Amino acid sequence: MIETDSLTKVFGKLTAVDRVSIKINKGDIFGLVGPDGAGKTTLIRMLCGIITPTGGNIRYLNTTGKKGPGGATRSFGYMPQKFSLYGDLTVMENIYFFGSLYSLKRSVINQRADEILELTKLIKFKKRFADELSGGMKQKLALTCALIARPEMLFLDEPTIGVDPESRKEFWKTIYQLNREGITILVSTPYMDEAELCKVVAFMDRGKVVAVDTPSGLKKSFPFKILEIKANTPFLDFLRGLEEVKDVYFFGDRFHVVVSNVEQARAAIVKEIAGRGINLVQIKEIPPSIEDVFVSLAGKEVV
Ligand SMILES: Nc1ncnc2c1ncn2[C@@H]1O[C@H](COP(=O)(O)OP(=O)(O)OP(=O)(O)O)[C@@H](O)[C@H]1O
Ligand SMILES: [Mg+2]
After folding, report:
1. I want to staple 57 with a disulfide (CB 3.0 to 4.6 A). Which of 5, 49, 156, 232 is the partner?
2. Ligand 1 atom closest to Cα of 43?
3. In 3-state terms, what secondary structure has residue 39?
4. Do the bridges between strand 245-251 and strand 153-157 make them parallel or antiparallel, or are there none, so unpaired?
5. What is the pLDDT of residue 64?
């Protein structure tokens, strides 16, 4: 559906997006995952045609809209990272405003709005001012507005940031529902649990896409093993000094230690911890999670 080739955006001395080549297929839920400043928003804006790339190409394949950024907007829905609606307008007035940008007739907007508001569960709040909606409801309204022109593809830029866990779940249900109805979705997120929900995940770090695969593919190609440790200490950083240990980081209430050879590493770790008089509660091998994969790709922790 969209294919990029060495897509690049430079702002002054900063390369915000660095030679990104990805392919988003029709029907995908394509996740763009990465820490703050990785270049996710900049990449999305280029794909939607809002900003012009410094280098590289974007090809729009099999889209019904005109090819190229100018014509692409009609068949693309874009939900920006920052809340972009009018707080002093009601839910329905915001929808009319967006619909009018696409020259939709009021009767068409009314009919589509009812359908989408039913899906996003905002139907009861048509007359409420946008400013008076909760964070999760604001995001749903932004989604509703992005859907009003019936796009074939939706770009959602960190749609669940700052939204409570329950609303995040609901938001994802809606994403799946829309995808089942045939809408291709690109969604950016810093949350690892959301990466697991995507069909394909591209991991971005410092402007580059460093890995693209299905969540299970990413985990399968992880070249190391993970030892999970519970110990009565908040610090195990000293384990990095061991030859057998690639990395150590805190993971909820336990530690993850990245190793190549489980048995050798286990022996060395047990010895080192005992030598420091720390009580080792548990050490066991666990399968890598998607967060383990990303921590090792980025060399630092992601949310
Ligand atoms: N218009 C701009 N002018 C100059 N620098 C910019 C501009 N837009 C983005 N940048 C810089 O480009 C880099 C990538 O920013 P971008 O907003 O694309 O990252 P992001 O992955 O979306 O981050 P976040 O998760 O915080 O939204 C950052 O260092 C940012 O400061
Ligand atoms: Mg962003």
Report:
1. 5
2. 18
3. coil
4. unpaired
5. 58
The per-residue pLDDT for 302 is 41
Q: Does 65 share its domain with 210? A: yes
> Which ligand approaches the C-alpha of residue 38 most closely?
1
Give the model confidence (pLDDT) of 181-195 as tens digits.
999 999 999 888 899
Using the structure block, give the residue that is written with the tokens 């286990």. 266
Co-location of 89 and 174 in the same domain: yes
Last residue in a domain, options 157, 191, 214: 214
- Cβ neighbours for 199, distance < 8 A, ≥ 6 positions apart: 28, 29, 30, 214
Question: What average pLDDT is seen over the chain?
Answer: 90
Q: Which of 45-54, 73-82, 109-118, 243-252 has the lowest mean pLDDT?
A: 73-82
pTM of the model: 0.87
One domain for residues 107 and 90: yes
Task: Tell me: do 52 and 124 sit in the same domain.
Answer: yes
Whether 182 is covered by a domain: the verdict is yes
Task: Please work out, in degrees rounded to the nearest 5, the angle formed at the alpha carbon of residue 159 by the alpha carbons of 156 and 135.
Answer: 145
Asked, for residue 296, whether it belongs to a domain, the answer is no
How far, in Å, is the centroid of ligand 1 from the Cα of 97? 28
Average pLDDT of the segment spanning 219-234: 92
> Which CATH number does the domain housing residue 138 bear?
3.40.50.300
In the 8-state DSSP scheme, what is residue 236? -
Domain count, the chain: 2
Mutate to test the pocket of ligand 1, among 41, 50, 82 (most ligand atoms within 8 A of CB): 41
Residues above pLDDT 70, as percent of the chain: 94
pLDDT value for 72? 46
- Of 267, 253, 262, give the one whose Cα is nearest residue 285: 262
Protein residue with least CA distance to atom 4, ligand 1 = 11
Residues bordering ligand 2, an ion, CB closer than 5 Å: 40-41, 81
The enclosing H or E element of 184 equals strand 184-189
For residue 173, the enclosing domain spans: 2-214
